[in-house]
Write a structure and sequence with these properties.
heterodimer; A: mainly alpha; 25 helices; globular; disordered N terminus; disordered C terminus; B: alpha/beta; six-stranded mixed sheet; four-stranded antiparallel sheet
């Protein structure tokens, strides 16, 4: 057991950490397939002398205004659904919390098209509501976009606010109450201020997701200059007008706004999907006191949650089950096969890349370098997969032409699209591994590789499973890369769904959507298997 | 086996620690006392090889290990809060040093179970740390340190999170084990009662040893 040997500084250090080399290949992947394409977009957009005229031209000004107005309204509706849910479930310390958290995650990961169809099934012109009441709702345009975005983004508030509520030590609130302050005043003067960083993070993220990554939602519910978002305009510039320069200029506007918001508000506080942590001192100070009040809150939640999430999902499953037998077997089995392979490829690319960034940040001593390793993987948040696909087509036109029909470019774009959330999940988990555990393992002779495999990765296993789920779910729902890179050649569930809806064959769409939901639910179940029966609530 | 520290300089930000000389002999417990921020835990961390900016030397049985990587220093750590790995059972936690050394389960199992038995933990061997009490977890951490076979043990306020009765019991356990196993123990504590089971005590202030001697002779009014 004698391992004593003098330190040989540089070479020995390199040998000790050589096992991280495959992870750092992910960093190279990021540089080649994200930084260069985005740099190309910026260069194309900036050095064309038509950037300003494009932005101030009436048509595009309306598009830009509409993009950010719908994002704002979507954020507000998501907040109401998520905040009421967080209040009811977390403040009452419901036992269903892990289930709710996982369900929220599934909604957040739901493919855009599935949500579009779900909303159409209830609120569409021939949806359940119209059939039941005889009063059709005009869901197209702003209402549909806002409703769909709220469906995706309410979990940001539910989980973000909820985690904040559960982690708070309420001694300051108790002090405030003991000096005679009312609960409402205490909430606004103390609790809200303490929840604010997480809340602000959720708000900015919801706004970013609603504005920069809602391409499919806006494509289906929008239309015409009055209800077109920047993402749709970029797609149209690439697909219909064959004007990459215009696409790059519009992409630059989107990138600029998203990046500014990120740098201003999200660099430190972020929404994270991690373990539920319950502070023993987190007393339910604000839980409804009377049965009437409790009932009223539940009613509000039921109406909001039912209208935005539950009813559309139920309708989709119902319609999907009816449509499933009519689906062409060969078509959906090929689409399912491609979807699963792509999801696996995206996950295999994304998770190690995220691990590479997290380890690079953890191992680096220089503060500025740590900042860079923490910041870079969040950048795709400001650039949707559509924008990234445009960047790749501009940067590597020959390679992209040769790779037509191949799954790799699609998987790379999908992996990069999922990277921000996957990285954040993994990073938080890695940094949560107590330093004392790492040091103990090292002091007992564990080399860095052994520390990683025997201490850090096992401690992060839940988060790694969630990260894989996020990467795979994100890939399953992605259509932009497939449509731009290999139209007509690669069939995935989302693309078939896209085509079915585009041809107004909604029944077929419902069938594909149901398959997607089943696959997602299966993945969510798989990612939870490890945690069944385990004590999920840990004490501080 | 003994631990000798000579002219050790550690720098963490603006804080500087300087230990001119410190010796811990076999079967001896030397305590490090002092106020918060005096450098007690920094010294242990530096000895473990976890602080880059460290100069000087420390020797174990005459061999200078100050330039070794942490995993080659052969120092057993026990931290304030349980440093048992949450994903491993108590038995696997205790066996960790031997698993790392590549010793097979068939070989480590009897030794691990013997130590668990000795510390009254055998019945809890298959439990995970979250199903152990604070005292059981700390005894588990002690068992792991002893199983490693390392003769130099660093205790960083190991019992400070426990209730007084448990602390008294565990102090006695440590005292007995140190004598039986001829361990050299450097023990950081805030608690003067801990000091009573130590052979010698050093008081640190602003990164320097300002007093050392027998526990009974500690000038309490001056330093506490």
């Amino acid at each position: 057991m004698d391992q004593s040997a003098p330190r040989a500084p540089l070479i020995a250090s390199l040998v000790r950490y050589a096992f991280l080399a495959p992870f750092f290949l992910g960093l190279l992947l990021f540089a080649a397939f994200f930084l260069i394409p985005v740099g190309r977009i910026v260069a194309t957009g900036l050095f064309e002398d038509t950037l300003l005229p494009t932005v101030v031209e009436g048509y595009f000004t309306r598009i830009i205004l509409f993009t950010y107005t719908q994002a704002l309204l979507s954020t507000v509706l998501s907040f109401f659904v998520g905040a009421v849910g967080a209040y009811l479930f977390y403040e009452n310390r419901s036992r269903r919390l892990p289930v709710l958290a996982r369900a929220g995650l599934v909604c957040f990961s739901m493919p855009s098209l599935v949500v579009v169809l779900a909303i159409l099934a209830v609120w569409g012109r021939s949806g359940w509501w119209a059939e039941l009441t005889g009063v059709p709702v005009d869901i197209y345009g702003l209402p549909g976009i806002v409703l769909a975005n709220a469906f995706f983004n309410f979990p940001l508030f539910l989980l973000g606010i909820g985690a904040g509520l559960r982690g708070l030590d309420r001694q300051w609130e108790q002090t405030s109450l003991s000096f005679g302050a009312s609960r409402i005043r205490t909430f606004f003067t103390i609790t809200l201020r303490r929840l604010w960083p997480g809340l602000r993070g959720a708000m900015v993220l919801a706004f970013l997701y609603s504005s920069a990554t809602s391409f499919v939602v806006a494509l289906f519910f929008g239309g015409g200059p009055a209800a077109t978002t920047l993402e749709v305009a970029i797609y149209q510039a690439m697909k219909m007008d064959y004007d990459p320069a215009l696409a790059a200029r519009l992409a630059l506007v989107s990138l600029g706004v998203s990046l500014t918001l990120y740098l201003l508000f999200l660099r430190k506080e972020w929404f994270t999907v991690g373990e539920e942590v319950l502070s023993e001192k987190s007393l339910p100070l604000y839980a409804p006191r009377t049965n009437v009040a409790r009932l009223a809150w539940w009613l509000v939640f039921a109406v909001l949650f039912g209208a935005v999430v539950l009813l559309p999902l139920f309708a989709l499953v119902y319609e999907g089950a009816a449509a499933l037998p009519a689906l062409e077997g060969a078509l959906w089995s090929e689409a399912l096969h491609h979807s699963l392979v792509l999801a696996l490829m995206a996950s295999v690319l994304c998770v190690p890349t995220a691990l590479g960034f997290a380890y690079a940040e953890r191992l680096t001593r220089r503060k500025w370098l740590r900042g860079i390793f923490g910041f870079l993987p969040a950048l795709p948040l400001a650039a949707s997969t559509l924008l990234l696909s445009v960047g790749l087509l501009l940067s590597y036109p020959e390679w992209m032409a040769e790779a037509r029909g191949s799954l790799w470019p699609i998987a790379i774009v999908q992996a990069l699209g999922a990277l921000p959330l996957v990285h954040r999940t993994i990073r938080e988990a890695l940094f949560r591994v107590p330093q004392s555990h790492v040091r103990t393992a090292q002091s007992f002779g564990a080399m860095p590789f052994q520390v990683m495999t025997r201490v850090e990765l096992p401690a992060m296993s839940d988060s790694l499973a969630v990260a894989c789920l996020i990467a795979m779910a994100s890939s399953l729902g992605e259509v932009a890369a497939v449509l731009l890179f290999s139209p007509g050649e690669v069939s995935t569930l989302s693309v078939e769904l896209f085509r079915a809806v585009g041809r107004y064959r909604f029944q077929e769409g419902f069938g594909f959507a149901l398959i997607l939901i089943v696959v997602l639910a299966g993945l969510a179940l798989l990612s939870s298997v490890r945690s069944f029966g385990r004590k999920r609530v840990t004490q501080h | 086996m003994s631990l000798n520290i000579n002219s050790l300089d550690v720098k963490v930000g603006s804080f500087a620690l300087h230990i001119e000389e410190l010796h811990v002999g076999p079967g001896e417990i030397v305590g490090l006392l002092g106020k918060s921020g005096s450098g007690k835990s920094t010294l242990l961390t530096a000895l473990g090889g976890f602080i880059a900016n460290t100069k000087g030397e420390y020797r174990i049985d005459g061999e200078d290990r100050s330039a070794f990587f942490p995993e080659r220093r052969r120092l057993a750590y026990v931290f304030q809060k349980s440093s048992l790995f949450p994903h491993l059972t108590l038995e696997r936690n205790v066996a960790f040093p031997m698993e790392i050394a590549g010793i097979s389960r068939a070989k480590w199992r009897p030794r691990v179970r013997a130590w668990l038995d000795r510390l009254g933990l055998l019945g809890l061997a298959q439990r995970k740390p979250d199903a152990l009490s604070g005292g059981e977890a700390q005894r588990g951490a002690l068992a792991r340190a002893l199983v490693s076979g390392y003769k130099v043990v660093l205790l960083d306020e190991p019992f400070s999170a426990l209730d007084p009765k448990l602390r008294r019991d565990l102090r006695v356990v440590v005292r007995e084990l140190v004598h039986e196993e001829k361990l050299s123990v450097l023990w950081v504590t805030h608690d003067l009662e801990d000091a009573m089971v130590m052979d010698r005590v050093c008081i640190l202030e602003k990164g320097k040893i300002v007093w050392s001697g027998k526990p009974a002779e500690i000038p309490r009014e001056k330093y506490f």
